[in-house]
Amino acid sequence: MQIVETNFRFNGKMAQRSATTRIVLHHSASDPSTTISDIHRWHQGQGWSGIGYHYVIHSDGSIHRGRPEWARGSHAYQDSRHEANSNGIGICLAGNFQTGKPTSAQMESVTWLIRDIWTRFPDIAIIGHKDVMPTACPGKNFPWGELNKRLEGLSMAEPWKEELMQEADKAGLIDLKVGKHKPDEPATKWFVLAVALNLLKVIKGGK
């Protein structure tokens, strides 16, 4: 996946975040067609320097950059004890999850994005906006259970993908007993080479 660079202009100079200890999830509480440009305009209309979130995920699953990741956010403030702007990365999914649910594409993208952030800030906590402010955000219908399963590496793939993995295991191309093989996981070079070598062994063994 790729992150779409928006290159927004912000009013004034943004401060650097003092620490990074959590990821804060939000919904836009608006129509699913809401775009990051809409949110940037709304936030500037409130007198802010610009969009308060670091990332926005559209309903089609595309990931768009808001504030630079290093910058202090403007998305989750209550008091000094709960304040998450100075130590949290804000991710907003377009839509209203009080009345609807995130799309499958959004769930795939937010999982990928969290894992990507974890490469820079290993295993920081994931919380909802509601955990630091008196709000329902990211909505009562946000599927926390599904997100946790995805992050734990449990398969959320379509059945045909699982069947394909099983067939590859029986053919000797992969070994499901060794390591974690997830259908939608990107293939590294060593894995592609391992499959190719296994394929050559199968071909030679059949002669």
Identify the CATH homologous superfamily of the largest domain: Peptidoglycan recognition protein-like
Question: SSE order, as H and E?
Answer: EEHEEEHEHHH
Total of DSSP H or I helical runs spanning 4+ residues: 5
Q: What is the correct CATH architecture of the largest domain?
A: 3-Layer(aba) Sandwich
- As a whole number of angstroms, the C-alpha radius of gyration is 20 Å
CATH topology of the largest domain: Lysozyme-like
Indicate the overall shape: elongated
In terms of structural class, how would the helical and strand content be classed? alpha/beta
Largest sheet: 6 strands, mixed
Distance between the termini: 41 Å
Number of domains: 2
Helix share, percent: 25-40%
The average pLDDT score comes to 85
* Strand arrangement across the biggest beta sheet: 1-4-3-5-2-6
Low-pLDDT runs: none
The CATH class label of the largest domain is: Alpha Beta
Q: Quick one: how many beta strands? A: 6
